[in-house]
# Entry
Amino acid sequence: MTTGLEAAIEEAARRIASSRYVVALVGAGLSAESGVPTFRGPEGLWTKHGEPDLRDYERFVEDPKRWWEMRQERASRFAELAQALESAVPNAGHLALRDLEEMGQLQHIITQNIDNLHQMAGSQAITEIHGNRTKMRCVLCNRRWPVEGFVIDELPPKCPECRSGIVKGDTVMFGEPIPRDALDECINQSRMCDCMLLIGTSAVVYPAAQFPIDVKSSGGVLIEVNPNETPLTSLCEVVLRAPAGEALTGVVEWLRQR
Ligand code: APR
# Structure
């Protein structure tokens, strides 16, 4: 007898197979099975420690030198997250997305995660709307460099390319505008998309949570992969109420055996 989840996995796989351009919108829930804490919900980091100070970015803009000098103090506030990110490796969910891309069933990933686990899993077509923890970025020209090997010989570090911008970690802080190049690519991908997978996101943070609404309003299909309900559940044609690793692996297996 087919379980509810098995039937939903089959329905999701059929919808993906019959779609022209599939995009995955990914959140912290995908990396939960890699030991990276989520932000909201009972065990969420912000629930336990409170959300980061919205004025952090203002302080950076007002006095970037002092902001850089305070980085150790900021790091200690997020030690738990930093440790988890340091030791995290891709899980079955990341690998399933890589497989869907290789099978030609997934065209792009828009990730809200900063953990670099999609790249470690081998996925190629990725836009990181909240940046990447392994990179530095010039806030003026948006050029990026690996953290490793980036020489900081003055505070605040100046952009070695445009020579006038200030360089900071690529991760987007609360209150910081989304880098234009990343935002434009997300909008571009959402416009081409006729089927969006909402994977492990509580869908409450904008502009990321707007993309599924845009896909839906232009006649696209939404598929939610999440053990819990979200504000976008009612807009979804298919809901996989299960952890991403199990659900996405099931979708890949169904598409492989058909
Ligand atoms: N598989 C799939 N989904 C899961 C799993 C799992 N194994 N475990 C938890 N979830 C779901 C939760 O039910 C929740 O809906 O993942 C979601 C995580 O929600 P949030 O913690 O709010 O994370 P996210 O949506 O990515 O937050 C968006 O907010 O704080 C900022 O910059 C941060 O990128 C982040 C943004």
Remarks:
- The two ends are 19 Å apart (CA to CA).
- The chain has a mean pLDDT of 95.
- The first strand starts at residue 22 and ends at 26.
- Residues 27-29, 32-33, 38-41, 44, 112, 130, 200-202, 205, 225-228, 230, 243-244 surround adenosine-5-diphosphoribose (CB under 6 Å).
